[in-house]
Structures are given as C-alpha cells and as structure tokens.
Write a structure and sequence with these properties.
It is found in: Cell inner membrane; Cell membrane. By secondary structure, the protein is α+β, with helices and mostly antiparallel strands. Helix content is 61%, strand content 18%. The chain has 7 helices and 6 strands. 30% of the residues are buried.
Length: 237
C-alpha cells in the first residue's frame, strides 16, 4: 500500500526507459553471440544487461549517486563470477574468454542505462558489436601471418635423444654447443627412454633465430650416439 501512495510516475517512467534500453542493447549484443553459437547467447547477455541496469537504477533511487556507485562495485564482482562460468579448458586450449568479456561489457552497458546515460550505453554496445564483428578479420589475418621466432617471447627447449652409455658426455656437449652458439642453458632435464635417454635443455633466451637453432640441432644430431635432436618452443604465459 505504501508503494501505491508514494508512486512517482516520473521515476517509474525513468526506470522503464532505463530497463528498456538495457534490454534492447543486451539483446543486440547477445544476438551476435547467439548467431556465432557461443555458450552465452542472446538471453544471457540480455538478462545480464537488464539485471545490471535494475541494480544501478535501484541504488540511485534509494541513495542517489553514492548508492549507484556502491552497487556498481558488486555488479562488477558478480559478473566476474558469471563470466568465469563460461570459460572452458579443453586440454591445452581455453575457450570462452571472448564470451566472458562480452558478458562483462553487457553488464557495463546495462549499468550505463541504469545510471540514466542511455547515449553512452548505446555507444558502448556499438563498440562491443564492432569489436566482436570487425576485429574478427584482423585476428584471422594475424593468425595466418608467419611467426618470426626472433620477435616472439617464449620458452625454448633443445631435445636430444641418445644412447644411455653416453649420457654424461653428451650432456656436457649439449651445453657446450648451445653456449658456443650464444644460447645459454638455464637447465638440463634427463628423461629415461628404455635403453636411451632424452636430454632436454631449457634455454635462458626468450627469443631465438630459427635458422641458428636449426644449425645447432643439426650439429648435435651428427654426434656419435645421438639418434635424434630437435628444438621446440612454448608460450611463456
């Protein structure tokens, strides 16, 4: 009954507009995700934007700008947990990071709408849609570009497989050859392989010249007792 007595048509209209804008923009962002068959699609993004808008609008109604600011902190942390739920790890691959980031942006879009900044909400939604749509060809172009090993930062390993009886001498030769090529060795791991041993030398360098390491491994492969020599790299992240 108290709600009817203190009903303010102007405030009600303001809330209606905020929620409508948030729902429309969240739907637009989610439609792009739904079209690409992502885990968090149209309904998820629409509801995230709507919920964020409702919380911020309620905070402003109860305590003005300070109330909205306090609510925003909780919205940000809450959406962070929600976004983590769509991130999947499959072996060495991680999926869903872009979808989680989109959910985060949907929440901020809704927060803008709830804080009575519809123009900024529309602008952010446009940027989100633009990022998910127009940056895709750029990502594809970068991924197809050949990798310059000398320009990348990674962990590089030189692997040498040899007979067991020459373990110690070849370990010393491995370190000596690499350091002679100006690639200091940080660590050497020994892995037993039946009657052979695999020596894995981790380099201190975070970037290399592929042709130089190719030459080093070819030199190592030609040593007596060595059956195989190669080098590999992996991300340092």
């Amino acid at each position: 009954m108290a709600g009817l007595i203190h009903f303010d048509p102007q405030e009600f209209l303001n809330t209606f507009i905020s929620l409508a804008v948030a729902l429309a923009l969240g739907t637009a962002i989610g439609a792009e995700r739904q079209y690409r068959q992502r885990n968090a699609g149209l309904r998820t993004n629409a509801l995230v934007a709507l919920g964020a808008s409702a919380f911020v609008d309620l905070g402003m109604r109860l305590n003005g700008n300070p109330g909205a600011t306090q609510v925003l902190a909780y919205v940000a942390s809450g959406v962070g947990f929600l976004g983590a739920g769509v991130i999947l790890k499959e072996g060495m691959n991680i999926r869903g990071l872009n979808t989680a980031a989109t959910i985060w942006c949907s929440a901020v879009t809704g927060a803008f709408a709830g804080a009575d900044h519809p123009a900024e909400a529309v602008l952010l939604a446009a940027f989100v849609l633009g990022g998910n749509t127009f940056l895709r060809p750029l990502v594809t172009l970068i991924e197809r570009a050949p990798i310059d090993e000398s320009a990348t930062e990674a962990i590089y390993e030189v692997r040498l497989t040899a007979i067991e009886t020459r373990r110690e001498s070849l370990r010393d030769l491995l370190v000596e050859t690499l350091e002679g090529a100006n690639y200091p060795v940080r660590d050497v791991e020994e892995l037993d392989r039946d009657d052979e041993v695999e020596l894995v030398a981790t380099l201190s360098a975070s970037s290399v010249k592929a042709e130089e390491l190719d030459a080093v491994t070819n030199e190592l492969a030609a040593l007596d007792g060595v059956s195989y020599a190669t080098w590999t790299s992996r991300s340092s992240d």
